[in-house]
Amino acid sequence: MSQNSEWSASAAIWSTRTSLARLDNKWSALVVIALGRGSGLRFGDLRTLVEGVSAKVLTETLRDLERDGLVLRHAYAEVPPRVVYELTELGCTLHAPMRELGDWAERHAEEVLAAREAFDAAR
């Protein structure tokens, strides 16, 4: 293998790792899926849709997704204050594959659980 192809492979791995780093936790993927299903969701709505997430973790997740250019945060100067979150154009391109992954997980949940049980029983 030439140095050029080694560099290209390393660059591809680095860019893939960098791009997917945000999705290394379940909350980011679930937030992207939830935001893709609704337009302009408030924090409380997101917290309801993403069952089990704490307010602190949801806040951190939204901030990280915003930092990566996947989520827009709109704060309105109203009383009481209103904040709405939505996917950016870049975030929308991620929604379809995340939704497909979520659909796959739902379709195969029983099979995965059965495989885990069989594996654990064999140990």
UniProtKB/TrEMBL annotation:
Statement: the UniProt record of this protein carries the keyword DNA-binding: yes
Coiled-coil intervals: none
Keyword set, alphabetical order: DNA-binding, Transcription, Transcription regulation
Entry GO MF terms: DNA binding
Keyword flag Disulfide bond: no
UniProt domain HTH hxlR-type: residue ranges: 11-113
Domain of life, source organism: Bacteria
PANTHER family: HTH-TYPE TRANSCRIPTIONAL REGULATOR YODB, TRANSCRIPTIONAL REGULATOR, MARR FAMILY
Protein name per Swiss-Prot or TrEMBL: Transcriptional regulator, HxlR family
Source organism (scientific name): Lentzea albidocapillata
